[in-house]
Amino acid sequence: MAGPATNAVTMTVISKNMGKKTLGIYIFSIAFSSIILGILLDKVWGLFHVKEIGHIMAHRGFIPQWAEITSSVMLAALIIYNALKRSRG
């Protein structure tokens, strides 16, 4: 749920237009509400005895592990490249 709200473009726009203090409040509110809503969702799923889905998703991922690791490394490299490119001018 917090993924689209915490992308780099959104945070950059908020930081430049509203300041770093507002960005901090924004990130804190997203993190806080995500944790609270996650706990609430967990409780609701518990009422319906839906625990098997989480177990299946945790142990039988939809994407192979090699693809997850490769994409994570590529994303990190692109983020570092972009940060270095911006810092040089």
Characterize the structure shown.
- With 89 residues, this protein is mostly helical.
- The protein folds into two domains: 1-49; 51-89.
- Helix content is 80%, strand content 0%.
- The chain is built from four helices and no strands.
- It has helices spanning 8-18, 20-47, 52-59, 65-88.
- α1 crosses α2.
- The two termini are 34 Å apart.
- The mean pLDDT is 85.
Summed up, the helix count is: 4
The SSE order reads HHHH
Proportion of beta-strand residues: under 5%
- Distance N to C terminus: 34 Å
Q: Could you outline the blueprint of secondary structure elements for this entry?
A:
Elements: H1 8-18, H2 20-47, H3 52-59, H4 65-88
Question: How would you describe this structure in keywords?
Answer:
about 90 residues, 4 helices, about 80% helix, mainly alpha, flat, about 0% strand, 2 domains
Short structural description:
The protein is an all-alpha fold. It is built from four helices and no strands. It has helices at residues 8-18, 20-47, 52-59, 65-88.
